[in-house]
Amino acid sequence: MLSVEQLREGILGGEIDTVVLGFTDMQGRLQGKLVHGAFFLDSVLGHGTEGCDYLLAVDVEMNTVDGYAISSWDKGYGDMVFELDLDTIRRLPHRPGTVLIQCDLTLEDGTPVHVSPRAMLKAQIERAARLGYTALAGTELEFVIFEDSYEDAWRSGYRDLTPANLYNVDYSILGSSRVEPLLRDIRNLMYAAGLEPESAKGECNFGQHEIAFKYAPVLTTADNHTVYKTAAKDIASQRGKSITFMAKPSAREGNSCHIHMSLRGTDGSLAFWDEATGAATPLYDSFIAGVLATMREFTLFYAPNINSYKRFAKGSFAPTAVAWGHDNRTCSVRLVGRGYAARMENRLPGGDVNPYLALAAMLAGGLHGIEQGLELEPETRGNAYESGAPTVPTTMREARELLAASAIARDTFGQDVVDHYLNYADVELAAFESAVTDWELKRGFERL
Q: Looking at the 3D structure of the chain, how many domains does it have?
């Protein structure tokens, strides 16, 4: 990571020529501008830059769509300010001479854009601080590697692609080694970009792998997650390959994004563990209870796409039951660790998750549990898929209706935020429900 002075010296010395100003949109993508270094020093460093407010009011295809209060044809599609977070200056070593600065979004008068994912997470961080806590998190993001380039994948309609491994390589050293040139590049280049990679391992789907990074404060984790996801695609593309983080890219195992979270006191003290008794604290229990109590209502923030819900299947290691257990991978919430390592793992999100939205939802749910003094339900032992526990929504429409009916969501995030993401769901559902799929053609073209 660079200081402002180091960035200035790099630009003036000719080492840095491009400054990427990026924010994370609703879909979890880095969006923004590539600014020439000299212009950045002269005109941007002091006050930021601007971008169209439609960037938080489009679909995945970047089409302008109706229904958003923040932006419309009637409002003239004005600007938002990209407010530079100068604590996030980092090199992008896979792009020579380039640094990235992550941004918050504000209106022209300095008011935060509350519906932006980073603002939603920062609001929950401030809420935790008022209660005397700071949140730490780590995201475990899985992906599938293909030997085909993104351009070739597009031209083939994403059919008949060649995965980097042709069999299940879960924990296989041989399987990882076969794709290690790419995995090694990603690990080392992300380390040079200020992240702390821990390890890489194979997963179950063909060509599926995971690179884990060390936990950090939740905002840093969300920032790093977005940088890593964007850079991994870029690095793979530079090598003629492609990577997908889709939750369910094929009929085999989906891509997960397990999220680990814990609280500490703002002074760094333990919050989830009592060293004297060697057991979890009542506060930890209430936090878990809150995450579980809000899980169904907040699922749209954990599973934000139509495809997300294809991943939830019995016996798939993706959860279906709203339940918790000690080191139980069949539950949506798995508890691991002791002492400072005591933490909860939320196994609901997939690889397509927007980390800011998921972390905001998870932290909000846990803080709700603490504020309300919720009691933790009994642990689920054995196979949670067959436990009879309440289940997570199985479709985006069900998740949309649960969020719409949630008083907790409105009180926690604000009506404007809830309405914004309900419209996001409505846009996706309308697009999906009007599409003619390969499944329909295959079953109906001749036989119906």
A: 2
